[in-house]
Amino acid sequence: MDRADFVHLVRLSEHASADDSDGYRRGVAVFAALGYLWVFACLGLAAGIIAWVVGGLGQGARFSFTRGWLLLFALGLLWATLRALWVRFDEPDGVPLERADAPALFEALDRIRQRIDGPAVHRVYLDNEFNASIRQLPRFGLFGGAVNHLSIGLPLLMALDRRRLLSVLAHEYGHLRGNHGKLSAWIYRTRMSWLKLDASFQRDEGVMAFASQAFFRWYFPRFAAKTFALARQDEYEADRVAARLLGTRVVAGALTEIVVKSAWYAETFWPAHWSRAAGEPIPAGPFSAMASQLRTPMAPDFARAALRAALRSVSDVDDTHPVLRDRLEALDEKPGLPSWSEKSALALLADAPRWTAHFDDEWRRDHATDWKQHHAYLVRVGERVAALAASAGCNNADEMVEWADCARRLDAAADVRGHYERALQLTENHPGALRGLAQLLPAQDRGARLAVLERLHESSVASRWWAARTAVAALEDPDAGGHDERALKLWRERTKTAEEAEQRAWEEITATPCFSQITRHDLSEFELGELKADLARCMPVSRAWLVRKNLREFPWRRAYVVFLELPQMGDDERWQLCRQLEQTLSLPGAALVLWAGHSPTLEQIERQAFGEIWSRAA
In whole angstroms, what is the distance from residue 367 CA to residue 359 CA? Predict the structure, then answer.
């Protein structure tokens, strides 16, 4: 099923849900049961064939080649089906908490359960993610009672005050409430089961595996599309449950504070933490420093920009979670920056310093090799900066831009504006210098930034999309100056034109076979170092390969295919991570990110991708 068909089915499910919610839910339950029917049909077929063969032999029939083949097929089918019915699920990552570890937290969960009148949370985990989630895992394969696992991230406890953190936990608990919650939880468990089952069949060969793969290729995309509206409804309902317990203002404040602080967490905290490797060869634990910084009010300019970016997001079919604007609207709350949490919710833990130290030690152990690699890379960057500084009088434009870029890599606040301006004196309209200068000019100096972006747009076809998007963001920023409708209209039209070209380029990247039109990557040492730093921070990645994709329609366009080995993840998690990395990897052009699996296989990648560029074990 292609994306257009999937989106169409999602829209149909949303309309069905809006027109007749109960009928829609019944239809979802029936379609979910179809998957179970397939498994039971295979089981019945296997049992029937075995009974026919054995029964025939008992009545004196001769054991022929045909009967022997059918018996072997039936036994294989029976084994595969029984194994499918006993799907094993991994428990969440993190440290299991006992009541003695967090008595205040468990008391709060007990009160939430009493007020919602819901099932028990059987296990609570503390992990190092800026998130909280609840999962229902079946006890016995596809069947049996469910075990409820609640995971809470230590950074989230650091970021929110007690009431806002409890609103998040109430939201997660709200997924389990009432009959609607039971159906949603069953659909969620069923979806996980089909993913596991499909992965199991993908590793097998033979008639049964082939038939099952064909069935799930047809069934699973339709199942995901038909259940999409149910999953999104469940998110709104969980928000309403949290609002009934703690009030809409608390829930809205928590949602907004999480959006802003998670942006700071990803865009500011982690890059700054990894930059410490320039002067520290031994890994530094991040969580001790994180605790105090998350309690500090966010810088107003950053907070407003992060909130505006979140409010511009539109709900789509890539994520069942609604965007912030839609969630606030459903709660009848107006968007705006909240008052920041003055105290963290760490008091819910009996010994918060112990857990901070635990996750610091764990992080240092897990990232020791990556940190050493990053330290060595930053040392090389520093040496390159020193060499370029020594030859400052005879550097060309490319070298001046490289000097500035390397200095910013060592210190994001480095004063390198003069380097970019010198590069422009040497080579008028140098794309790298114009782009660097546009990034450095303050937001309030909108006129100068737009002038630089105009030069970049006119002189570099490859930079038009970036220039147009940056200009639109500057013109839409109310803190940067008054509204300029004429300029905004012009840059929006340019953005649309550039995006159409980008879309055609992306279609060529994705529509052609991943190993066609490729050559070795053309990244400079600095660019490759940036990419390796990103990969080191992405823990699921064990190895990576990179090739350049040569586009026929846009031969000047730098485009890439990144291949990753993600051994500890399921296909659904791999798909989500790859889509995220396509937006965040430090590459000088569009990138398609694929994982080693069924297509392409690890063997194909190792044979055709010109050798790995990075390995966590190296």
Answer: 12
CB 446 within 8 A of CB 436: no
Closest to 353 measured CA to CA, from 270, 291, 265, 273:
291
Count each helix (H run) and each strand (E run) in the chain, helices first.
25, 9
Please calculate the CA angle 230-235-240 and round it to the nearest 5 degrees.
120
List the beta bridge partners of residue 563: 545, 594
Contact 511, 520 (CB under 8 A): no
Tokens read off for 155: 């950074």
Structure tokens at 364: 């240092």
3-state DSSP call for residue 157? helix
Name residue 204's amino acid. D
Q: Which two tokens stand for residue 227?
A: 């259940």
Interatomic CA distance for residues 40 and 38, integer angstroms? 6
Contacts of 445 (CB under 8 A, 6+ apart): none
Q: How far is CA 328 from CA 132, 168, 256, 442, in A?
A: 19, 14, 9, 31
Going by the DSSP 8-state scheme, the letter that residue 520 receives in this structure is E
Neighbours of 281 (CB within 10 A): 11
Query: Averaged in consecutive runs of 10 residues, what is the pLDDT profile of the chain (618 residues)?
Result: 77 82 82 80 84 73 72 76 67 91 95 86 94 80 72 96 96 74 67 64 59 74 83 88 94 96 94 91 93 91 91 80 92 94 94 95 92 90 94 94 92 93 96 95 91 95 91 88 91 93 88 92 86 87 95 86 90 84 87 89 93 86
Edge-first strand order for the sheet with 95-97 is 95-97, 123-127, 143-153, 132-140
Instruction: State the pairing for strand pair 143-153/123-127.
Output: parallel
Q: What is the DSSP letter of 101?
A: G
* Residue 533 tokens, joined: 């730093």
Is 182 in contact with 237 (CB distance < 8 Å)? Answer: no
* CA pseudo-torsion sign 470, 473, 474, 480: negative
d(CA 381, CA 387): 10
What stretch of H or E contains 302?
helix 300-312
Whole-angstrom distance, CA of residue 344 vs CA of residue 317: 34
Q: Residue holding tokens 């159409």?
A: 500
Separation of alpha carbons 433 and 445, rounded Å: 18
What's the rounded Cα separation, in Å, for the pair 221 and 430? 47
HSE at residue 76, side-chain half, CA atoms within 13 A, is 14
Q: What separation, in Å, do the N-terminal and C-terminal C-alpha atoms of the chain show?
A: 39
Q: Which two tokens stand for residue 290?
A: 């994180």
